[in-house]
Fold this sequence. Notes:
Elements: H1 3-15, E1 19-27, E2 33-38, E3 44-50, E4 52-58, E5 61-65, E6 69-73, E7 79-85, E8 91-99, E9 114-116, H2 120-129, E10 137-138, H3 144-152, H4 172-183, H5 191-198, H6 202-213, H7 217-235, H8 240-246, H9 252-263, H10 267-272
Antiparallel strand pairs: 1-8, 1-10, 2-7, 3-6, 3-8, 4-5, 4-7, 6-9
Helix pairs in contact: 1-3, 2-3, 4-5, 4-7, 5-6, 8-9
Amino acid sequence: MNRDLFIRELAIELFASACSASALRHDHLVEPLDIAPHHHDNEIQFDLVRGCRGKVFTSGRWLRFDSDIALVAYPGETHGYTLEPTDATAAVYNIKVEPNTPLGSLNAVPLPRLAQHPSAGLFETAASLSVSINPYIALENTSILGILSLLIAWPDGGPSSVRRGLGDEIHPVVERAVTTIEENLHDPLGLDDIARAAGISSRQLARLFEQAMGMTPHRYSTTRRLDRAKTVLLSNQLSIGEIADLLGFSGHATFTRWFAQHTGMTPSGFRSNPKVF
């Protein structure tokens, strides 16, 4: 599928209200931000990173960067990043689109997974689609033209100096382990169960996983469960009790204690004054 056909099919999906879209914005970033590598089964994710340096996980490996970048993660592709603000413009803009019908074959990668130096206008468009402070917003039809403007202006070129890799491609066993963890965030598995699903011994998995992801499987599972909790909290669509149930906790109080232990604030406190995605 080429670029123009991809954008046209996505436009049809959006205007037909057959897919959902949301926007996240984190501007005035002053502290490092870590989003553990993960994937979405059905969503296409677009990220714009400004005023930061760090590393990004894309195409199965970590890459260093030290300039503004634009990222695309297609359904099923593992992605994530570690950001360190470098100036007062530091910001991250995130747009997710979830079509209800397949958009043809995406094997051709109609938009590059990673590109350097996106235009200032692209950041302005992304900012107009999202809300600061309370950074989650479900996009209505009035924002569809903004999404299409973002896609049409998305850079064509691939990475240049960003090609500097940090290691080999991620091991298939680690990919299977990541998928297993993602599918069981509501009922986290132990190392033995994850290793069994990945077809490898617990000791081998622990070594390979930490080498590829920079953290243990247990820490990764906790980090991703927190990411899920924060995203759902920011949507303001479910009560704290409903979120606790969605994430597999026994009740409101148990979820609140767990969330406070890992973030230093209660779920309701985070919802009213979010610090990170």
